[in-house]
């Protein structure tokens, strides 16, 4: 009944929504309309009801769509081909942001907050579990804590076996495994990287459930008791994923000296987004801190090996076959964040390449087995990692006017601000309501802009050639007690524009050289997060 009323109301109000989007106004009327919208939503924001959140989301989308309609119909007039190319590029970047705003709202407006499904009192009914701890090049001191913590998990010892999967074939790891009494598995090659390592272990073990921990993720004692119950309750449940919690600061938190005062970059994903995905049975497997049903893995042929993000692709294969997934929003393990910015960039590059590969080789928008909502959740993830090019466009767009006097937006400043102000303010305000304690808009911009210049080329190349590249292991466990400046990370964001300008304005080369030299002291370790590592 409620669903029917919802769709009836939507049908009745849709003509009003269309009028809100397409009705033209001069700058004065648009300012009044925009400020009224902002004021009304600000007052509504005092209510915490979910229905109010839905109304605010719809209003924000209407104002953003109104801005995009204004941009499409009134600002795309150009005087030259170069203005047309750059202007359309900026407009398409804004279209991308609008699409991501829509998808993010759809994901997060109805989060599912699960509780723990208790195990039966009769332990004989508990399933057997194999715990996999894959490793490749990580130091033993990192892996040791993970293995010892796994041994302390509160679960019947006759129903739990631990395996150290060593793709590095290191003798000290074999000795350590024998000393502490866990299984040690290695193989002759490293084919398919982590996914291949896990699949090889599947052929040598027999547990009904597979629990996977990255080698730096230290589990709590209750991990299995908190996650296994759902598999007994629902025989079609293939995956239970828990959040990745990091007890060390990432490079941004360290260098900006903000510590835990701002949300970690991953909190938005391991919060509203995964909760929203869970509502549509689209929870992603994230490679660690998860439990998987062996039967489901057998049906899809093991962990996915076609892309470098074997985790998300594996979940996609489950859901195509009708298996269910769940996200339990309780941190039950803690790991190491990437220590250096260069390692952080490498990790994000792999994620971006992997989601782009999924888009190309097993696109969730096509094929059978997925619901419409599941397709939208995967579309959001795939499109998110294409953010690099639009971000670079936004950062560099002002240079078209400042350096070349090109007008890429045909509008008066007053008119475009009158349309852009409610669009931007409401997007930030409503986004803060939905995701506030998980991500701050300003810090999110810093994360994305820093990464954008590094991800542009890998995502574009992967989109054209999805099979190129290889799996890059994320280094963990480095000792960061001495600050230094990592030139390899920042050089592509400031060195090449300087050289480019040097070539074009040779008359100013001397002055430009002095500017570059003057910049060097400001990029020294002493100003890089209080001497911390970049």
What's a quick, concise take on this entry?
With 534 residues, this protein is an alpha/beta fold.
Supply the number of structural domains: 3
Biggest sheet layout: 7 strands, mixed
Quaternary structure annotation: single chain
| CATH homolog superfamily of the largest domain | Spore Coat Polysaccharide Biosynthesis Protein SpsA, Chain A
Please provide the count of β strands: 10
Question: What order do the SSEs take from the amino end to the carboxyl end, as H and E?
Answer: HHHHEHEHEHEEHHEEHHEHHEEHHHHHHH
Strand composition percent: 5-15%
The helicity comes to 55-70%
Question: What keywords describe this structure?
Answer:
534 residues; alpha/beta; Spore Coat Polysaccharide Biosynthesis Protein SpsA, Chain A; 3 domains; 7-stranded mixed sheet; 3-stranded mixed sheet; 20 helices; disordered C terminus; cell membrane; membrane; transmembrane helix; Glycosyltr_2/OpgH_subfam; c-di-GMP
Polypeptide structure, described:
Residues 131-300 form the Glycosyltransferase 2-like domain. With 534 residues, this protein is of the alpha/beta class. The protein folds into three domains: 14-110 and 386-436; 123-339, Spore Coat Polysaccharide Biosynthesis Protein SpsA, Chain A (Alpha-Beta Complex); 481-534, no CATH class. The protein is 55% helix and 8% strand. The strands form two sheets. It has a seven-stranded mixed beta sheet with strand order 3-2-1-4-8-6-9, sandwiched between helices. It has a three-stranded mixed beta sheet with strand order 5-10-7. Residues 498-534 have low confidence and may be disordered.
């Amino acid at each position: 009944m409620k669903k029917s009323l919802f769709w009836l109301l939507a049908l009745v109000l849709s003509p009003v929504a269309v009028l809100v989007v397409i009705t033209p106004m001069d700058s004065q009327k648009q300012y009044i309309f925009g400020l009224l919208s902002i004021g009304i939503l600000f007052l509504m924001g005092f209510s915490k009801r979910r229905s109010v959140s839905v109304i605010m989301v719809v209003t924000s989308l209407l104002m953003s769509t109104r801005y995009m309609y204004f941009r499409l119909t009134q600002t795309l007039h150009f005087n030259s081909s170069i203005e047309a190319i750059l202007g359309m590029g900026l407009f398409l970047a804004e279209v991308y942001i609008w699409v991501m705003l829509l998808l993010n709202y759809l994901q997060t407006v109805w989060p599912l907050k699960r509780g723990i499904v208790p195990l039966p009192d009769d332990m004989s009914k508990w399933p057997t579990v194999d715990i996999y701890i894959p490793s490749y090049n990580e130091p033993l001191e990192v892996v040791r804590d993970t293995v010892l913590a796994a041994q302390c998990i509160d679960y019947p010892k006759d129903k739990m076996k631990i395996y150290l999967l060593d793709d590095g074939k290191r003798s000290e790891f074999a000795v350590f495994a024998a000393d502490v009494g866990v299984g040690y598995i290695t193989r002759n090659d490293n084919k398919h990287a982590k996914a291949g390592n896990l699949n090889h272990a599947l052929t040598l073990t027999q547990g009904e459930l597979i629990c996977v921990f990255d080698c730096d993720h230290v589990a709590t004692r209750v991990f299995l008791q908190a996650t296994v119950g759902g598999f007994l309750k629902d025989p079609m449940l293939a995956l239970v994923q828990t959040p990745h919690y990091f007890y060390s600061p990432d490079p941004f938190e360290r260098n900006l000296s903000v510590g835990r005062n701002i949300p970690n970059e991953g909190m938005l994903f391991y919060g509203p987004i995964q909760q929203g995905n869970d509502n549509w049975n689209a929870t992603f497997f994230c490679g660690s801190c998860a439990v998987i049903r062996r039967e489901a893995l057998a049906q899809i042929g093991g962990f996915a090996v076609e892309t470098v993000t074997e985790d998300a692709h594996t979940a996609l294969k489950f859901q195509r076959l009708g298996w269910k997934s769940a996200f339990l929003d309780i941190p039950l393990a803690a790991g190491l964040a990437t220590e250096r910015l260069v390692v952080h960039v490498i990790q994000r590059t792999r994620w971006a390449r992997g989601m782009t590969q999924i888009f190309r080789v097993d696109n969730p928008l096509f094929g059978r087995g997925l619901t419409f909502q599941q397709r939208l959740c995967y579309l959001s993830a795939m499109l998110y990692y294409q953010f690099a090019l639009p971000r670079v466009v936004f950062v560099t767009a002002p240079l078209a006017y400042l350096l070349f006097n090109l007008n890429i937006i045909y509008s008066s400043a007053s008119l475009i601000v009158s349309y852009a102000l409610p669009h931007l303010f409401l997007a930030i305000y409503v986004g803060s309501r939905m995701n506030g304690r998980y991500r701050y808009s300003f810090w999110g911009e810093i994360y994305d802009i820093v990464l954008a210049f590094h991800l542009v080329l890998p995502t574009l190349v992967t989109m054209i050639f999805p099979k190129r590249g290889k799996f890059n292991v994320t280094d963990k466990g480095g000792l960061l007690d001495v600050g230094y400046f990592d030139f390899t990370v920042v050089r592509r964001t400031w060195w090449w524009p300087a050289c480019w300008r040097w070539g074009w304005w040779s008359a100013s080369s001397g002055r430009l050289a002095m500017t570059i030299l003057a910049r060097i002291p400001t990029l020294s370790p002493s100003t890089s997060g209080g001497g911390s590592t970049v």
